[in-house]
Design a protein that fits this description.
Strand content: 15-25%
Oligomer: single chain
Number of helices: 3
Order of helices and strands: EHEEHEEH
Length: 121
């Protein structure tokens, strides 16, 4: 099981890079608005990658976030929100564009990664 150390002093781009080290064909984006399972996030509410985690949340606890491939995508997103007060959306590479994993939120992160590879990213 891999974990990601979450602290207020991380820039969003650093968290995104560490996630993508584990899943090169996936990425995460940070949003100001929460979304439910199977719902898309509005790009107008996406945070800039240069912001620090401390800038986008009111709960400032630190800890480790599990980034296991066996986690459902919806679980990963919910865990990030519940543990650290941050809204994230997983995106999957599909050919030459990034798509939100709304219809595949019940897939594991490994399944998302494998699907992206098959789609020729």
């Amino acid at each position: 099981m891999d974990t990601l150390k979450i602290t207020d002093n991380l820039q969003l781009k650093e968290i995104k890079a560490r996630f993508s080290e584990k899943f090169p064909h996936l990425k995460i984006e940070f949003f100001s608005e929460e979304h439910g399972v199977g719902e898309a996030s509005k790009y107008s509410t996406k945070y800039d990658d240069e912001l620090y985690l401390r800038d986008i949340r009111s709960t400032h606890n630190e800890g480790d976030l599990e980034i296991s491939g066996s986690l459902l995508t919806s679980e990963f997103e919910s865990n990030f929100h519940n543990q650290f007060g941050v809204n994230v959306q997983v995106l999957r590479r599909s050919r030459n564009m990034w798509i939100q994993t709304t219809t595949t939120d019940r897939w594991t992160l490994d399944q998302q990664e494998e699907s992206s590879i098959k789609e020729g990213s």
